[in-house]
Design the sequence.
């Protein structure tokens, strides 16, 4: 199987999807991902740059010039577009859940109840702040007619609302 025929990972798919819009430098790709993708799918700078280099070697992206401060600007290639489509059409698996407050609640009998209450209240504040940020992004997506981003932000808002409701119902 040729390199470009392999199924790409999710971070690579984010990069390719963003490059469908226009050529970009790595830092701009990361800025967009941190704003629009990270509220519902965690990415890292190191993974972005690692995947950019890997995808360049596989012919999925290519340098298209220099951006500000001599940064490399990347462009998606036809092979990159095919790789993205192949990824997009693969079945989606159920996500793994990693939730630190749920883990602490599971072992609540080993914790001081005042400390657990404090952790729960702090987590509710964090989820509320994240929900407010997502509502701002939802408004921005509506204003800019970004339908897919609008739907993703609705998911993020629902997630934070559901988590806050769950936190409110924990008996400590």
Sequence:
């Amino acid at each position: 199987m040729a390199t470009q025929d392999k199924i790409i990972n999710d971070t690579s798919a984010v990069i390719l999807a963003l490059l469908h819009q226009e050529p970009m430098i790595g830092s701009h790709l990361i800025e967009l991902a941190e704003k629009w993708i990270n509220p519902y799918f965690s990415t890292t700078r190191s993974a972005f740059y690692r995947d950019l280099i890997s995808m360049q070697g596989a012919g999925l992206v290519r340098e298209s010039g220099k951006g500000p401060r001599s940064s490399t600007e990347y462009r998606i290639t036809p092979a990159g577009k095919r790789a993205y489509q192949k990824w997009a059409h693969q079945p989606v698996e159920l996500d793994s859940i990693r939730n630190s407050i749920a883990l602490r609640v599971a072992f609540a009998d080993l914790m001081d109840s005042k400390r657990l209450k404090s952790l729960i209240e702090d987590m509710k504040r964090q989820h509320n702040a994240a929900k407010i940020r997502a509502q701002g992004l939802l408004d921005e997506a509506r204003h800019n007619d970004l339908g897919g981003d609008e739907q993703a932000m609705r998911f993020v808002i629902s997630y934070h609302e559901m988590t806050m409701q769950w936190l409110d119902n924990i008996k400590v």
Q: What stands out?
A: The beta strands are 24-25, 61-66, 72-76.
